[in-house]
Amino acid sequence: MPPSTEHIRAVTEAYLARLPDERTSLTMLFAMLAGADDPTSRKTFPAHVTCSAILINGGRNVLHILHKASGKLLAPGGHNEPSDQLLRDAALRELHEEAGIPPSTVVPLAGHEDIPLDIDVHAIDANPSKNEPAHHHVDFRWAFHLGADHAVTLQEEEVDGYQWRPFAATASPAVRTKLAQLT
């Protein structure tokens, strides 16, 4: 069963308890949670929830995956699946699917076991081949440390490559700022 609306709301409120200035940027999420549609379904428009894994290695670098669909280097992540009971589960599944890194080799960033490092709302272009209109992703970005060395094994159907980037070169400016504040 996918993450419930109540779970998404509780995670969001816990996040906003730490970062109350971000409430306005999540207006679209709260509107979506008030609706009748499943907020995690990729067919829910004009917005739906996605999840990403911010994976940090021992050298304080963040894993970035080159996604074929967008041509961008981004954190491993994507849409929720029916088997993802929690938002964090979706991020861990996507990390495993895209980069071959199993959940057993990562540990949540201290203080972020149940709260994402970042929640981002970004626009997605229309995709006529999938019959998808332009819409928004509300991306819950979960932070993990690579607890045991594990090689990256790419899912070649969806990704073309990867890079480990230092905190200062992380693709997302919001994540970059939040990582810079870590001790």
Q: In brief, what are we looking at here?
A:
The chain is an alpha+beta fold. The chain is 23% helix and 28% strand.
Characterization of the model:
The protein starts with a helix and ends with a helix. It has helices spanning 5-18, 27-34, 87-99, 173-180; strands at 47-56, 61-67, 73-74, 77-79, 106-108, 118-124, 135-146, 159-166. It is an alpha+beta fold and 183 residues long. The strands form 2 sheets. Strands 1, 4, 5, 6 and 7 form a 5-stranded mixed sheet that branches. The mean pLDDT is 92. Helix content is 23%, strand content 28%.
Could you outline the blueprint of secondary structure elements for this entry?
Layout: H1 5-18, H2 27-34, E1 47-56, E2 61-67, E3 73-74, E4 77-79, H3 87-99, E5 106-108, E6 118-124, E7 135-146, E8 159-166, H4 173-180
Helix-and-strand structural type = alpha+beta
Calculate the mean pLDDT score and round it. 92
Q: State the helicity in percent bands.
A: 10-25%
**SS strand fraction:** 25-35%
String of helices and strands: HHEEEEHEEEEH
User: How many strand segments?
Assistant: 8
Alpha carbon gyration radius:
16 Å
Principal-axes geometry comes out as globular
Low-confidence stretches: none
Largest sheet: 5 strands, mixed
* Helix run count: 4
First-to-last CA distance: 36 Å
What are the key terms here?
183 residues; alpha+beta; five-stranded mixed sheet; 28% strand
